[in-house]
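@channel anyone free to eyeball this complex?
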Amino acid sequence: MKAWDAIIIGGGHNGLVNACYLQRAGLDVLVVEKNGWVGGAATSRELTPGFLYSNCSYVCSLFRPEIMRDLELPRFGLQVISYEGGAVFTRDGDYLANYRDHDAHRREFARFSKRDAEAYDRYARDVTRQCRFIQPLLMRTAPDPTSLKPRDLGELLYLGKKFAGLSAQEMALTLRFWTMSISEFLDEYFETDVIKANFALSGIIGTALGPMSPGTAYVLLHHYMGEVDGSVGAWGYARGGMGAVTKALAASFKASGGTIRTGAEVDHVLVRGGKARGVMLAGGEEIYGKLVVSNADVKRTFLKLVEEKELPDIFLRRVRNFKIRGSSGKVNIALDSLPEFPALPKDSPVYRGDMHFTDSMERMERAYDDWKAGRWSADPFLDMVIPTTLDPTMAPPGKHFMSCFVQYAPPKVNGREWTDADRDGFAESVIAQIAEYSPGFRDRIVHMEVRTPREIEAEVGLTEGNIFQGELTFDQLLFNRPVPGYAQYRSPVGGLYMCGSSTHPGGGVMGAPGRNAAAEILRDLAKSYQHMSPAHDVI
Amino acid sequence: MNHQPTARTLAQSHFRTLRIGSPFQPRIDALAKTQDWYNWAGYRAPHSLWDEELEYFAIRSQAALFDISPMTKYRIEGPDAEAFLDRVTLRDVTKLKPGRVHYTAWCDDEGFVLDDGTLFRLSPTRFRLCSQERHLPWLLDSAIGYEVSVEEETEAVAGLALQGPTSFAVLRDAGFAGVERLKIFDLADFPHDGETVTISRTGFTGDLGYELFVHADKALSLWDRLMAAGELRGIRAIGYTALNRARLEAGLIVANADFTTAEHAIRADRLRMPDEIGLGFMIDLEKGHFNGRRAILEARARRKLRHVLVGLEIEGNIPAEHAIVYHKKHQEVGLVSAAMWSPMAKRNIAIASLTRPYGDTVVEDLWVEIYAMRELQYQKLMKRAKVVARPFIKLDRRTANPPADF
Amino acid sequence: MTSFDAIIIGGGHNGLVAAATLAKAGRKAVVLEAGAELGGAARTEEFAPGFRVSSVAHLLNRLHPDVVKTLELERHGLRFSRADFLPSVALSKDGPPLVLHGAYGEVLTGASASEQSAWKDLRAQLLRYAGILKPFLSRRPPDLAGMSMLETAALGQAALSLKKLGKEDMRDFLRVLLMNVADLLDEQLTDDRLKGLLAFDATLGSHLGPRSPTSLLGLYYRLAGETGGAAGAQMLPKGGMGAVVAAIRAAAEQADVAIRTSAPVAKVIVEKGRAVGVVLDSGEELRARTIVSAINPATTFLDLVGPREIDTGFVRKVKNIRMTGDAAKLHLALDRPPQFAGVDAAGHKGRLVIAPSPDHVERAFNPSKYGEFSSEPVMEITLPSLADPSLAPDGACVLSAVVQYAPYQLKEGWDAGKPKFLRAVMAQLESYAPGIGGSVVHAELLTPDDIEARYRMPGGHWHHGELQADQMLISRPVSGWSGYDTPVDGLFLAGAGSHPGGGVSGAPGLNAARRIIAMKG
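replying in thread with the prediction:
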């Protein structure tokens, strides 16, 4: 029977990126995907006639341009459209907008505080400095600090040198960045609550932390990584929805000779003699491969797909201890017309950006307190976009698709599973909040899809519905991600690799884990990987 | 939600005009034959209005009117204003008498230059600080412990530079009685249109010249008054390209053109201390404490100064803009930040930042490699450069008293 | 006029330690204390007729061994005996308490056998990890800008001791370093009482909840401390904390330190960037080549030195030090000893902790983020007069408790909030020690507001700055100036606001003095 060179479990963006690189390196690669479509959390699905839903991931900001180039994604249809603006609506009927134009940005902030308006440049400078330090690490395998192997020592030295290259001021700031809360960090620059709330949201999106939790300053960097020096990867929509990313990846993969099987759920990884030999599908079919790469998160991979006896205790303990608490949900809405926000001038570019309603740090943090208590937030934080304002291909003319990312939604409600009634209550909290700022909003709704962590886990397979396949706290970053000792995409099982967001550098539609894992696999196979571009220079 | 409009909500509409006009914009627009604009701190400012070459000569042979309203302006007032500014800026502000102006700079704790600018002492307790960049948080945090108020007044105050040999005559003819008494760096208030205009004998050209500040709503009447009075004295409105030439001849530097200001420097090696950009003369170690003093002293003592800004005279007449500076034609030692053929000096001049000891103790055998784009090809030239004193031109009329009536 | 080599501002324990250490190295030193009494927040005070209590700090658990040795404190009356080590009693409303005996739970009682063995492992692990950080307590934080050979060597040493852990242990150490305490406890323990106690200890004195990342560091900080050579051990000093200060004072006086009380400093005199002396409130001027401030860093720079003599960026950094206290201190004069349900006599002499679970602590923490106090506060209670009857009249009893969370900036203001908070605290106490309310002769509740006013601690924060990861080591009190020297030549910091932080350790005072001696100041 045929043995593939590599079998990739899961056709999410990282699985596909990994598959593309391996196939292009000359391997015969099979991607098995449980759903009837590929894309994982980066999909566009027609859930009601005429409307394409980016029903999970909804913004394309972090995807590495090196990968887009290597895999020729533009040729396969990927096109990213930048946001035009964004805003936080305030409770007094006004809003604070973010404009792309630097001076408009300053004038907008000056409406609230002249001081904050002039504080922005220093803030941007400091954040940019930190991004420049961290960005090059995204496309490198994290070194094992306990290892004496030349390669790990070399990488540690690289890290050390990068760090030593910083000024003392920057070093201190770097250390603080990893440990401060975004709230405290912002306090050092800005005085106005709504301005702080405006920036703080990048510190909490996707994490089970509140803006006042230490460590959230780093999460902000993670989200800013796409726009270092304003050059590449600004926040934007993928034309045709986020599925366009994975569609292009799948097309690229197939064009280079790769094979995808959808509707093929993996039951477990076949292991013999401590080595992965293939996978068995839910139906009992066995597929053989010389190596297996899992795009699933580390918990799903090792607690569900691999038998316990194949894994060392200490590894299992660490996998069990991996924190992957879901913190968010989605409400996706088809609208028969563009909603109006009386606070917003009709010609405002904000309609073509991301909109928020949480105008104070306290509201944001209280939303998190609800999560800690096992409830969805009564006054949720929303990151709301209407991609059809820039990409009319996603809905019939004049109609719109709206994506609401909602925080917080706990993986379990008061310790029990989500029920349909819970889900409806959760949705209502979102609709009520939008309707408060947009009269008549309810009447425009044609169709709605509500996704709590339960739905996200069931459909996409993300454990506990965590969109980053694991929290982005220091104990789960770099050489700690996903678990200490196995932060280099390999696992205790020979020939079994990881390539999902559970691995370094983490979540977001970035593609870096998939690429980095491919680099390690090819290294193990002693295959050249010239077709893989090095990370772009940061100069 | 139904809310009454407030000043804050009324200001929302700014997003429709990304480059706002200055208070003089109607007059400038009317004269803008080239329609050649650039973004000066969010304002629509002219590169040139009709002919950048002739605009330059308007500065040197007539009177040129240049809109400086987009300059950042802060009003600093209070019993501790002098002490506050003495702590913030490098020069000794106690020596700046009311009715006087000085050129100064200010640093962060590490002694890196945050900006340079002009400080106008309007009264014993009232100052105006003009600068390229914005500094409100820094100034407000510096005001902790002082009885002083700091207010940003960029949009509220309109500014004009009137520069050139006939500028005095224009002002006198415009009826500003007593303007002849202003010596270089003096300032005084004069009545204008029911209010006052502050006129200082200052400028950015190295020529005889004045700067005028009025409340924004009196801007147009001031413009008209000057234009009417200057008609027979050759007054012309000009854009930035002409001014930039004049300032280079005068050897003056521009923040974020000739050096990077500390709050904008993302790369740590771009930061500059005053001694590294030719502003060391401002440092007054005898006065009380000022921001950066400790770091500046230490850098001087431990020879940590790594750069030096110099004036260069380059052989030939091809401008060396952004040329790399070499020692012995091969070792890279710096970069030219501004360069031109000076019509006044008849010399090929430049301002460059060099890595010490070049430009400091080693000044021989310096070269610049000029990439001159000619018909889609670079003509590479290696030209000898000599370190020379700034300013590149020295005009007696700039400081002559009484000012000459040309 | 007598001339001094060094003027030490502040007669708290750190100021006295710094002065005594300097004096022993031959410096002529004077300590200037603003209050009528020495000791700062480490005093024994009479709060009701016949009732005396350790005013803010009430437990000795981290007096640094180098301080004890350098100042020969045992010769000056300080005694450490294993018999004095206090048990920690995790109270429970619905069952018997769980007790950690000896030095931070060498023996655990009241828990299941499996929990006991889990605790044994966890305790050993925590002590191992805290041990790696311990050498940092008695050193200057490394200077990133110009790392000296010595500092590099010290860091190397830490790396080496890390290596000694073994590969897997080292990996775990690096993983958990900045983790939140609740997650770690959930990974290894099951008993809510034990987890609650540890969660409480990790967050005590900080504006963190057990679910806040980095909160585990609080536990390390505690376990890096030692008493009588035993890590994590704690005791109630005989005679209250004032007795500890008295011993330090005796050491200082024997070394010829001049001590002046009621001598508040109004101003540090700075001439040409150098501190040359101080002016007292009285107008009296004292000069010395070294000025040591063992008081709060913000007070030192913003009030005594003043912003005019320092740079704006430094003023910013000092103003950005987070130092708003989140803990209150309760003193009760009781006409009879209280009876905590299910607790034996030995337990009553120990440290009684109300923190039934990490979630409970977290819930108590939540309101403090918004300037509200906890309606169900968590607390650490001691009954010092049980072991030391001199503290209370015959038959009566003193209760001393640290209560969390009580934010300094209470939205409604402490004038209005204090009686309400006291009611909440008493209600909580009543449910664990029924009848206690009826035995109260006098109650004194010190909110952060009160602590600020009474002990000159801005924000009422006993660490003089939050002891969180971003305000530790090279970032304490501010980045760039973590090594006790300051931008003002000749002026040094020696208080809890400096590395390693607060608690009655004397380490900042000792480290500062060593730095001054090394600089020949």
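from a first look: Residues 219-230 of chain B form the longest helix (12 residues).
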